Amino acid sequence: MKLKTIFAAALALLALTQVACAEPTNTSKAKVGKDYSVIEGAKGVNKPEVMEFFSYTCPHCYNVEGFLHKWQPTKPAEVEFKQVPVFLPQVPHLAYGYYTAEVLGVLDKVHPAIFNQWHAEKKIIKNKEDLIPIFEAAGISKEDFEKAYNSFAVDSKVQHAKKLAREFKVMSFPMFVVNQKYKVESYENLDYMLSKFPIEKAQ
After folding, report:
1. If we measure between CA atoms, which residue out of 96, 92, 63 comes closest to residue 190?
2. Using one digit for the tens of pLDDT, what is the confidence trace for 116-173?
3. Which of 6, 47, 61, 104 could in theory staple to 54 by disulfide, Cβ–Cβ 3.0 to 4.6 A?
4. Which residues partner with 21 through β-bridges?
5. Quick check: pTM over 0.90?
6. Is 73 within a domain?
7. CATH number of the structural domain spanning residue 120
8. How far apart are CA 47 and CA 179, in angstroms?
C-alpha cells in the first residue's frame, strides 16, 4: 500500500511539474509593429473602446462603412464604439453636419446618406445649404436644422473632435484607435482588432 501511495504521489508531482513548465498560451493574434502601434504620449483607458476617425470625403472611409455596418450589431457588448469626423478646413460643414445629426437624433439616417451622396451618387456636398435636403429627407425641417447646426452643443462637439484628432495624432483616415492608446495598423483582421483586441488590452 505504501509503495502504491508513493507511486501515486510521484505521478501527481510529475503532472504538476509538466503544467508548471508548460509555456503560457498567448491567444492574441495581434502583433505590435504589424497589427497595431502604441500612440506616443497616450495614457489609454481601462475599458474596451474603439474610435474611428473618418472623413466623408475619404473613399476608404466610405468603403469601410460597409464593414462597420455589419460589425456593429455583432460586436461585443462591452466594446464601446465611437465615430469622430475629422475637421477639414475645406469642408467644415461636414463635421458640423455629423454632430447636428447626432444632436437631432437622426444620425442613423443622415450619416449613411451623406456618404452615399458623396461617393455613390458623386454629388459633392459643397456647403451647409447642401446638407439641408439630406436632413429634410430624414424628417428635420430647415429651421430645426439651422438652429441645431448653429448651436453651442454642436460647436462644442466639433471642438472636442478637433482636440481628439490632435491628441491621437491623426494624419490620415480612416484611423482606428483602441482604448485611447493603440492605433490599428493593419486591416487584414479588422474584426479581431476591433472586437477581441480592445478587451485583451483592457484586462
Report:
1. 63
2. 999 999 999 999 999 999 999 999 999 999 999 999 999 999 999 999 999 999 999 9
3. 61
4. none
5. no
6. yes
7. 3.40.30.10
8. 7
Question: Which pLDDT score, from 0 to 100, does residue 27 have?
Answer: 60
Burial 18-54 (b: 16+ CB within 10 A, else e): eeeeeeeeeeeebeeeebbeebeebebeeebbbbbbb
Higher pLDDT, 25 or 78: 78
- Structural domain of 129: 33-202
pLDDT in tens, 29-78: 899 999 999 999 999 999 999 999 999 999 999 999 999 999 999 999 99
With 0-12 / 13-18 / 19 or more C-beta atoms within 10 angstroms meaning exposed / middle / buried, residue 95 is buried
User: How many distinct helices (H) and strands (E) make up the chain?
Assistant: 9, 5
ω into 174 cis (within 30 of 0)? yes
* Residue 84 to residue 159: CA distance in whole angstroms: 11
> What's the angle, vertex CA 169, arms to CA 165 and CA 173, rounded to 5?
70
Query: Per the domain annotation, does 95 fall within a domain?
Result: yes
For residue 20, being part of any structural domain is answered with: no
Q: What pLDDT is stored for residue 203 in this prediction?
A: 78
Find out whether 130 and 96 touch, Cβ atoms under 8 Å.
no
Residue 184, CA distances (Å) to 25, 39, 170, 171 in order: 23, 10, 12, 13
